[in-house]
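For the sake of transparency, this paper describes our internal protein records without simplification. Because each token names a local backbone shape, the row as a whole describes the fold. One such record is reproduced below, unchanged from the form in which we store it.
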Amino acid sequence: ALPVFLLAWLRFGIGGIAMLRWLRKPATEPALDLRTRGLIFLESFLGNFLFTLCMVTGISMTSAVSAGVILSAIPGMVALFSWYFLKESIGPRTWASLALGRGGIALLALVQADDHGVDQLDPGRMWLGNALIFCAVLCESAYAVIGKRLTAVLSPKRISAIINLCRLALLTPLGLYAAWDFDFTAPAGWIWPLLVFYSLAASVWTVWLWMTGLRAVPAAHAGVFTVLLRLSAALVGVLALGEHIGSTQVLAFGIALTSILIATWPKTKHNNP
């Protein structure tokens, strides 16, 4: 119903209005130094602006199965980034859960390709599309690691509000271009309240919950949960869009959910004799 960049621009505009009070600096919070401002810009630029460009362009040039398999690398890449940039220690159990999660999501992508078929795409362009999808993986992984750094100096609410403001500024030129000749009377009336809900869910609640969680757990641990992005998208397709779910898809769900259980299961404490 709406062009992609117009949708994103309106989403961040609505989210910005909803989070105006969150922009106020608490008395106990330090002033933003140059390093923190740079991290905020990178979080906005990489985590949404560049991620969106790479995803939208890349998915149009490659197959759904290729994109799904490449995107399944996000949890592992988050772990590598957190190990290298944050010096987090990653144990065997986390690596095992990452491997299982990748296997489950890759299996889901392969099943979806069998169900819907692979589009006839130009093989000469598919490598570029795959490269762009991989760039989106790097952007999403950087988003998780930079977010972990920001939670050490800013509150989750203020991070969410400032990042949203930066995203709005970055997308304003593209949003205005998309809005210039768009007929705002064309979409059905129910589109606009749905847009408000989407904006609040995607720009306010999701980011705030993610940043609040990052304060309490390592970035690599949080990265394991990104497997739920693909699972939840598939479940929405089944529950809301009437798509078919088969035994292989159930197996893929089970493998991916097992990976989360492995990562989050409490460690057994052994008492010294």
The chain has eleven helices and no strands. The mean pLDDT is 83. The two ends are 67 Å apart (CA to CA). The CA atoms of residues 2 and 187 lie 8 Å apart.
